[in-house]
Amino acid sequence: MVALNNTKSRGSSTSRRESSSANPAKVLREAGHQTSGLLTQIGKATRETAGDLKQEVLEVTHTAVDTVKEEAQRLLDDQREAVGSKVGKAARLARQFGHALRAVRLDDAAKMTDSAAKRVEKLGDYVKEADVSKVLEDAEEVAREHQALFAGGLFLVGLALARFLKASRETERSARKSRR
């Protein structure tokens, strides 16, 4: 019985070999169709995944931008009163300086000082009332309209920052020396 089963199984494997070796072109075509179908499915899945990934990246980006805007607005709100107060002080000082200039009969200089004080007051009001997006829009507009002035202002800010950092470093060094 075992010998009969072995013979049957050999016969069936032989017939499979014969049928597959008898028509290799057909087998290759079938394999090609299967491969083509698989590649099509892989392509569709890849496009779907890429689309999903793109959508997720857009959502994350929008969320991050919204978070940054909200945080900037919160920081502006926190600092708004302090900045407005300082700007108001600067306007009052400019007005006092204008009065002092009038006292020594420098009326033209006093007029310029008063004009500057009015502008500083307007700036203080603007800071107290504006939101972050409005401030950014206005800053972009000013930078576009007055590029040379804006570049010069950035240069001056850079010089002031460098001087501040240098002074801080020197203060830190002298504090270390005094501790020794």
Describe the structure.
The chain has a domain at 146-180. Helices cover 95% and strands 0% of the residues. With 180 residues, it is mostly helical.
Q: Tell me the overall shape.
A: elongated
Overall strand count:
0
Strand content: under 5%
Mean pLDDT: 77
Describe this structure in a few short sentences.
Helices cover 95% and strands 0% of the residues.
Summarize the helices and strands and which ones pair or pack.
Blueprint: H1 2-22, H2 24-103, H3 107-129, H4 132-145, H5 147-179
Features:
180 residues, mainly alpha, 95% helix, disordered N terminus
